[in-house]
Amino acid sequence: MTAEHSATDLGGLDAADYAEFMALAAEEGFDIDGDGLDGAELVRLPVLAVVGRPNVGKSTLVNRIIGRREAVVEDKPGVTRDRVTYEASWNGRRFKVVDTGGWEIDVLGIDAMVAAQAELGIEQADAVMFVVDATVGATDTDEALIKIIRRAGKPTVLCANKVDGPSTEAEAAYLWSLGLGEPYPVSALHGRGSGDLLDAVMDALPEAPPQTFGDAAPGGPRRVALIGRPNVGKSSLLNKVAGEERVVVNELAGTTRDPVDEMIELGGKTWKFVDTAGIRRRVHLTAGADFYASLRTSSALEKAEVAVVLIDASETLAEQDTRIISMAVEAGRAVVIAYNKWDQLDEERRYYLEREIERDLVQVQWAPRVNVSAKTGRHMEKLVPAIETALEGWETRIPTARLNAFLGELVAAHPHPIRGGKQPRVLFGTQAGSRPPRFVLFASGFLEAGYRRFIERRLREEFGFVGTPISISVRVREKRKKK
Predict the structure, then answer these.
(1) DSSP codes joined into one string, 369-413
(2) Which member of 2, 248, 298, 357 has the greatest number of CB atoms within 10 A?
């Protein structure tokens, strides 16, 4: 743009204002009318399932392989419950690692569900890493799991874990008797022997197919995080949209601990849904696996594009519900509010729920609302349109000329109140970015919070921005020096 075009391009600014506007925009690093969107391509990576009985160090080994502390680890059995997928690389080759819960014989309840998820992980993997505690040796449970692995017919790498020094390598050698080939002595905790183990994994896994740009649209699948208090039905919702028992569901609150990713076809598109651990009321008072699960939930939210906040409609809205919504807003994610267990509501509860929403959620009236039942599937078809609407608002960008024309009319009709004998005035503005929309207003003085909220409300009325938080910051312009 040039100064000659300023009146048209920036909504009627004079040449001096235009020059100052462009100088300030360049100084702040704003991308005027750019889209700022990045893209990525999809490729199907080979999958390695890490299996074994409880407490042999599978999650510690997974963290060692991926090079970061991602999987929740605690020194007691049964911490991991779902199949959790992570991306890893070794010697320039990328692959996926699936951490599974501990497999046991003849268990009931939640333990049986965990074992079933581990068996599914074996079936869907390209290769299996079977982890044995070398300090204990092979047990009857290990022998029974080997039979399941052999039936699946997948290439298998035997990992003898907890070999912390040369003195325990002899114990690992006894595992040749399992008939799975060479046992690789490893210390997942200290990293000892992990390189040789990963070399063997690379030999077992197929090569990743070459990238073909026709496989998927640029940008990859949209990332949706399911968040909420414990036991509001996040895992049930994921299983319903996935059309299978993808994650463990149990009446026990806090069943999910690791964020679980699942690629799901809905509405003709592929989505990446992430089931997260329930966010408890006081995270700092939780301990062990629950504490780290809360941290992983926050991390999953940061990586998502849209947060579907589940609320138990059958119970009174809690302070924790509003806090979780605020958490998603502060993270700058698009937001959809899903009121689950709608099938359990009677007329009286519906009446009081509407009053609670009007009272407690007035600050997020812009968020799309869906009333669903993860158990029965009621109104699940409304979830994707709500997510798409929120993402559209999240990515909306207003041309600078149109924004300044709008601001000019708004300020003329509703000027800022006079304070201390002065009346600050909005001079011009720009949208500094999207995802979420961020606006910077250049003003002659400080704009009160109430007036900024007024501008936000009018921006929503004029341009939509459904389902997205909006950030408005103010730069006070220094007075021009008289020549």
Answers:
(1) EEE--TTT-TTGGGHHHHHHHHHHHHT----HHHHHHHHHHHHHH
(2) 248
